[in-house]
Amino acid sequence: MEVYTIKDIARELGISTSTVSRALRGSYEINPETKRLVMECAERLNYRPNPIALSLKGSASRAIGVILPQIANYFFSQAINGIEAIAYNRGYHVIIFQSQESYEREMANVQQAMSRKVDGLLMSLSSETSDVTHLQDVLDKNVPLVLFDRVSSELNVTKVVADNFGGAFAATEHLIRSGRRRIAHLTIQPWLSITQERLAGYRAALEQNGLEFDEALIRYGTFGPDEVGPMVDELMHLDSPPDAFFTASDRLAVGCLQALRQRNLHIPDDVSLIGFTNLNVADLLDPPLSTVVQPAQEIGQIAAERLIDQIERKLRALPIETVRIPTELIVRRSTRLEAVKL
Amino acid sequence: MEVYTIKDIARELGISTSTVSRALRGSYEINPETKRLVMECAERLNYRPNPIALSLKGSASRAIGVILPQIANYFFSQAINGIEAIAYNRGYHVIIFQSQESYEREMANVQQAMSRKVDGLLMSLSSETSDVTHLQDVLDKNVPLVLFDRVSSELNVTKVVADNFGGAFAATEHLIRSGRRRIAHLTIQPWLSITQERLAGYRAALEQNGLEFDEALIRYGTFGPDEVGPMVDELMHLDSPPDAFFTASDRLAVGCLQALRQRNLHIPDDVSLIGFTNLNVADLLDPPLSTVVQPAQEIGQIAAERLIDQIERKLRALPIETVRIPTELIVRRSTRLEAVKL
DNA sequence: AACGTTCCCGACATCGTTTGCGCAAATTAT
DNA sequence: ATAATTTGCGCAAACGATGTCGGGAACGTT
């Protein structure tokens, strides 16, 4: 388990380190025979180039940085899984940073990732982030950047997102078709791309079905603890309370389910509930929760692929684009009114 | 957002880099006035030492490596959360590696972590790992190592674990007290420390309550997909089938719940179910799931604290010990027979 | 006046690797 | 046979920071 350097190989073979280095990277100006010897020796000693030294030199560190709000979250942990799988296959390490939904920490994370000389950066923005100059700096330094899930329209980079509009549209339309008319939407910070897209899908479904969009039915969460209960209370005390809840995240869906049950509101008799979530136990809940599933792992995989493509073909600029992954509507009992009649 | 080096400060102040370096680390042999100037300049330029260069030099990299089987797992993602919180507070970065339950990958991860010159290593063993010489190598190189959750008795290092014996004992006793006599135990690979401890707790509870330990009621999972259904089928076709299931992990608990429901076995009328899990939606399941909760985040925190303590007080060897964090039994409807009578 | 101490600070080597340049030997062209 | 080219390889300088020397200036001591 000793760790050998290029020097060891050089000494072993009685040649210079430059020659070893060039031989290992297959330079044309090295004698094929020498190359063979070097390769053989490197193999024998189980030589692995020191990533630290490489990074310091400014060349590839074969590490990509991932900055996201929270690891302990169904969506993100699955996304990381996808990222890690691709990165591993293509020979990259993943260095993970959590912004904890803080703009401050996100900026610090970016700086640290840069000083660790990552070859590229994969990010999902914190909920506090509205200014993206720290990311523009990354781009200015020519470090590839791919955004996923929570993206910013102000940056001209590749983005990988779920079809938030389509998912929200489908969820809302499903609720309308099952007879709901007052559909509340619990969502997160309004300036986030995903919030806006989901809200737009929700609104479009309402309007295309001849229903009025009512701002009073929208609630914006802040990732605080136990914030869903009060929101539900407020909504249920409206003159015209909601008959359905459409939530925009894992946490909100679970919180809402909990709040509704605590208040003895029966689902789906009193109100329907549908979530935008990656909860893999959704069908084991009481009642089984209808959801719009976003393929978190796939989003992570595609984001990682795009990033590594960019890293490796730096010269030939790859097209900047927004990849939109379809979501899937899964109807379960929490929105299935007929089921109640059984 | 420019990034400055020690050279920039040296040039700015017309002094040498050595002086700047020493001034920054408060060496006694630098004129207080010079120190002040350097500090001030560093502050002004927002100087941050380059972690890569530090690592190369062999000194602290202020990064700790975390190697664990899977990120997308309730327990581990919460543990990472705890680790990251402590690491961040104490100025360390966290580099995460997933072994994907593979011994091969775990060894590769260890090598990579070492070549990235992490200051210390935090590990939970893959389910394939029985040989730990790769970790002994780490210790031989004087790199601090702390194991958590899945630990090995063959290594003389600090370990942080849940009270697996106590938790299993409590769960089993609870089942016995509620009238169960044939308690099946679904667990994971038998050579893992947590498996053995939980099994021992289960067995002790049985024997102290005058019940026979029956090997036929034990099933060992392998992290394969959909493996729980067949296990349940086998058990229910025994001459004397179980009247309760005690599962050793998140995945098994959820899988078991699903399997039992698919087979129309009513919980807890037909069989009770209790899990050893960190599922935070356990009380929203149908039925709400009794669990032994292990404080994943706390385990992560304590492990990180111990590791960083070891890193920073390398000289004075800290005591090696096994920290055992209490678990908590939470009884919900899945094991509450009386509740059925409502 | 000559010597020994302190006090500050700079030159240089170092970590592992890459890379520009140059140099000798081997090969080809004249 | 001499000149021009090619081939194969080594030297040394970087990357950013630290640490080992050692040296000059300003003291105090005989």
Could you name the CATH topology of the largest domain in chain A? Rossmann fold
Q: Report the C-alpha radius of gyration of chain A, rounded.
A: 25 Å
**Structural class, from secondary structure content of chain A?**
alpha/beta
Count of discrete alpha- or pi-helical segments spanning 4 or more residues of chain A? 13
Which CATH top level class of the largest domain in chain A fits? Alpha Beta
Helix share bin of chain A:
40-55%
- Low-pLDDT regions of chain A: none
Distance between the amino and carboxyl termini of chain A: 66 Å
What do the pLDDT scores of chain A average to? 89
Identify the biggest protein-protein contact and residues per side. Answer: A-B, 47 and 47 residues
Strand count, sense and barrel status of the largest sheet of chain A are: 6 strands, parallel
Query: What would the principal axes of the Cα set say about the shape of chain A?
Result: elongated
Core attributes:
homodimer; 342 residues; alpha/beta; 434 Repressor (Amino-terminal Domain); Rossmann fold; six-stranded parallel beta sheet; six-stranded mixed beta sheet; 13 helices; 15% strand; elongated; DNA-binding; DNA-binding transcription factor activity (chains A, B)
Written overview of the protein:
The structure is a homodimer of 342-residue chains. Chain A contains 13 helices and twelve strands. The longest helix of chain A is centred in the last third of the chain and has 17 residues, at 296-312. Helix content of chain A is 43%, strand content 15%. The first copy, chain A, is elongated and about 85 Å long. The termini of chain A are far apart. Chain A is α/β, with parallel strands linked by helices. The first copy, chain A, has helices spanning 6-13, 17-24, 32-45, 51-57, 74-89, 103-115, 133-140, 164-177, 193-208, 228-236, 250-262, 296-312, 337-340; strands at 63-68, 93-98, 120-123, 145-148, 158-162, 183-187, 218-220, 244-247, 272-276, 290-293, 322-325, 328-330. The first copy, chain A, has three domains: 6-49, lambda repressor-like DNA-binding domains (434 Repressor (Amino-terminal Domain)); 61-162 and 296-325, 3-Layer(aba) Sandwich (Rossmann fold), CATH 3.40.50; 164-294 and 329-340, Rossmann fold (3-Layer(aba) Sandwich). In chain A, strands 2-1-3-4-5-11 form a six-stranded parallel sheet, sandwiched between helices. In chain A, strands 7-6-8-9-10-12 form a six-stranded mixed sheet, with helices on both faces. The model of chain A has no long low-confidence stretch (mean pLDDT 89). Chains A and B meet through α4, α5, β2, α6 and α11 of A and α4, α5, β2, α6 and α11 of B. Chain B binds a DNA duplex (30 and 30 nucleotides) through residues 5-7, 15-22, 25, 29-31, 34, 49-50, 52-59.
